[in-house]
Design brief:
The chain is an alpha/beta fold. The protein has helices at 31-45, 81-94, 138-147, 160-166, 204-215, 230-235, 237-260, 278-286, 289-305, 319-329, 339-355, 375-387; strands at residues 5-9, 18-26, 48-52, 55-58, 68-77, 111-117, 122-124, 127-129, 173-177, 193-198, 218-225, 270-272, 311-316, 361-365. The two termini are 36 Å apart. 35% of the residues are buried.
């Protein structure tokens, strides 16, 4: 049995993802449809589109052609800058753009430019961030100011408003319509309180933090510290299993009661990476039958007092995938976890979930999915949660 003392803490959202500002433009074909399709593809294949500016129409810049439709989007992604550029070029290609090898400007079905990547300054042959011409383009600065008015140029420390004042672009740039972000169609905050659970290595903390970042939610996350009963338990499991599990239960109860009390469960959107009944699952694996009966009696009393999540998500992963994840993240205290132990935990969760009529439960099989590496897998999970609304 591998556990360590859990202290439930309310943390500022850990920034697992990068914040990206992209400029989108088109002046060929059905321009509105091009922009909308691009936003959809970016959200499905590259990163989560958090905000979308209004749609602007501007004169062609640098050459004579039809007018452009432009917007700016704010994206969250795990991708490093060079990989992000490759994914964006792939989206352009999939939409039918054929890049001209010459340096001259041409009409295009879609153009995606990276304006900003966190607060980084990147100077490579094929990648300049912030975009080198950002300050000269009104069709970039106007939508940028709309969704990121506090953004400062990381190299020059100049605000968007001041960049606009100094912008030499005198061409037309008119607001023509509103655009919707994909997240506007997916209001997970109506749940108020979501608990995401899973076996060891299932990715529950990563998913909880990612959702919290994308939907501006409060987080309730586990943090590890020493449990004084653990050394004794490892020396004599039969003797110290019960006090060990009782100490876990007491800590979890106290911390989750105290920390959830800081929030308004009717107004705040809270995402937690565990629920109190994980204590019962682990105890069933660890304790002798008579000890577990006593433990469950105490647990049932505590459970009645705990706030229930509006949605309980269980991330199921098969044992082989769990072992791969555990090995990959390299925590020394987890490396001796056996396949048998993981299977018992998985079975314990699934069996117990079946009995909990008071929980709104969603089981998602992520055995063949990687919601960090593949944006489409993350969107699959969001869609599954949305469908439970």
């Amino acid at each position: 049995m591998v556990q360590s003392k859990i202290l439930l803490v309310i943390l500022p959202t850990m920034k697992l993802q990068h914040q990206i500002l992209l400029s989108l433009g088109t002046n060929k074909g059905q321009k509105l449809e091009n922009i909308e399709q691009c936003i959809t593809l970016l959200h499905q294949e590259v990163g989560t589109i958090i905000q979308v500016s209004s749609l602007y129409e501007s004169d062609s810049w640098g050459f004579e052609s039809d007018s452009f439709y432009n917007c700016v989007v704010l994206m969250h992604t795990h991708l490093p800058a060079k990989k992000l550029l490759k994914r964006l070029l792939k989206v352009e290609t999939n939409m039918g753009r054929i890049r001209d090898v010459s340096a001259s400007y041409t009409a295009r079905i879609i153009d995606i430019d990276i304006l900003a990547y966190d607060d980084e300054v990147i100077a490579l042959d094929d990648l300049q961030i912030p975009h080198s011409l950002l300050s000269e383009r009104k069709f970039v600065l106007l939508p940028l100011q709309e969704i990121a008015s506090n953004w400062m140029h990381p190299k020059d420390a100049i605000s968007v408003a001041d960049l606009l004042k100094k912008c030499p672009d005198i061409g037309k740039c008119d607001l023509i319509s509103k655009l919707k972000s994909p997240l506007e169609k997916m209001d997970l905050s109506r749940y108020n309180y979501i608990a995401i659970e899973g076996n060891i290595g299932a990715g529950k903390t990563t998913l909880s933090t990612k959702i919290a970042e994308d939907f501006n939610a409060k987080t309730v996350l586990e943090r590890f510290a020493d449990n004084p009963f653990l050394p004794k338990f490892y020396k004599d499991q039969n003797r110290f299993a019960f006090p060990l599990e009782m100490s876990f239960l007491a800590d979890r109860y106290q911390q989750i009661s105290d920390d959830l009390a800081q929030f308004d469960l009717f107004k705040d959107f809270i995402v937690a990476d565990y629920h109190i009944f994980k204590s019962l699952i682990f105890a069933k694996v660890t304790l002798a039958e008579d000890e577990f009966r006593l433990y469950k009696t105490l647990f049932d009393i505590i459970y009645k007092e705990m706030p229930k999540p509006d949605l309980y998500v269980y991330l199921y992963q098969n044992t082989d995938k769990l072992l791969q994840n555990i090995k990959r993240r390299g925590r020394s205290y987890e490396q001796e976890i056996s396949a048998t132990y993981l299977e018992k935990i998985n079975n314990g969760y699934l069996d117990y979930i079946k009995t909990k009529k008071d929980l709104n439960v969603l089981v998602i099989d992520v055995s063949e999915r990687d919601f960090v590496k593949y944006q489409s897998d993350y969107v699959f999970i969001l869609d599954a949660i949305q469908q439970k609304l």
